Amino acid sequence: MKIDGTPYRSIWIDESDRWSVRIIDQTRLPWAIEIPRLTTPEQVAHAISAMLVRGAPLIGATAAYGVALAMRADPSDEALATVIPMLAATRPTAINLRWALLRMQRTLAAHPPAERADAAYAEAAAICDEDVATNRAIGEHGLALIRARAQAGHRVNILTHCNAGWIATVDWGTALAPIYMAHDAGIDVHVLVDETRPRNQGFSLTAWELGKHGVPHTVIVDNAGGHFMQRGAVDMVIVGTDRVTRAGDVANKIGTYLKALAARDNGVPFYVALPSSTIDWTITDGLGSIPIEERAPAEVTTITGRALDGAMMTVRIVPKDSPAANPAFDVTPARLVSGLITERGICAASAPALAAMFPDQALQTAA
């Protein structure tokens, strides 16, 4: 995708030294585009935990490069055994993190230490390239849903929650990929962008990237989604996800469950876009088995923005003595999901449908 006409991925190898890692600091968007240089696995761990990078697919890709940086410094068995759990502990909910780290561990275990650095960089690059291809396929399958809605000749209004665009992946995005493709195909689409408190990934990230690509959109407060659905102003909801159980339960940014309930009550299709690496084939019950990350109360009690004089500032927005809870995700039961948009096609959010769509993965896990 592009920023002001220049194509970007969300993570890449520094062109000057060919080994350090560059990312876009998402905590600075939309106010500034800053591109940190990561040189150690500790810096990668901080980038993930502090959410300089976020979005399940990008977290996995970044962690893979964290392993590569570790192997460049020390390719020993001990170093490999240390870096994997260190990176795995950064974000507990996103299953892509564990998936990417296990893939790196299995690949590198088959190589002697002298070959591990090169193998690690090659495998991390492959994970990134595969993510781009996967998200392109998700976009193509989701495009068919949007095109079907557009046949009546009216504007297609799509509500999305959080950010599942190209900066949440290596490129294209998951939930936004079909929207970008529809826009580029000349379909009249309009996106209702939830603000997505408390970290505001909707109005700070989704609105930013849609605007940079020229996609018509309107930012709304999180509690307005049901209102627009009641008035027929939402044709479909498309969201991303950080983990999907083998039975189709979906963990996504806090507030997703409420949107699914409103969509069901108003007969609005509710779709979840995901790569198969986001499916956790080891669990069935999302409510009982998916760990929900509890983040710092300061994300709720403070907010950062740009003052009218142009200065960046963080201000407290609740009384100083009031405590705050900050669960980062909630679980939407499979019964509320109209369909899962994957790289292989669209399927029901159910154990039989997922197993039929991905028999190779389901059988591997069962074995």
Word description of this protein:
This protein has 13 helices and 18 strands. The protein has two domains: 2-130, translation initiation factor eif-2b, domain 1 (Four Helix Bundle (Hemerythrin (Met), subunit A), Up-down Bundle); 138-366, Rossmann fold. The chain starts with a strand and ends with a helix. Helices cover 42% and strands 18% of the residues.
User: In order across it, which strands form the biggest sheet?
Assistant: 8-7-6-9-12-17-18
**Alpha-carbon Rg, integer:** 20 Å
**Assembly category:** single chain
At CATH's second level, what is the architecture of the largest domain? 3-Layer(aba) Sandwich
What is the class of the largest domain in the CATH system? Alpha Beta
Number of helices: 13
What is the fold's blueprint, element by element?
Layout lengths: L1 E2 L2 E2 L3 E3 L7 E3 L13 E2 L2 H9 L6 H18 L3 H12 L6 H15 L3 H38 L5 E5 L16 H8 L4 E6 L6 H13 L3 E4 L4 H6 L5 E4 L3 E3 L4 E4 L2 H11 L3 E4 L5 E2 L5 H4 L8 H4 E5 L5 E5 L12 E4 L6 E4 L2 E3 L3 H7 L1 H8 L1
Parallel strand pairs: 6-7, 6-9, 7-8, 9-12, 10-13, 12-17
Antiparallel strand pairs: 1-2, 3-4, 4-5, 10-11, 11-16, 14-15, 17-18
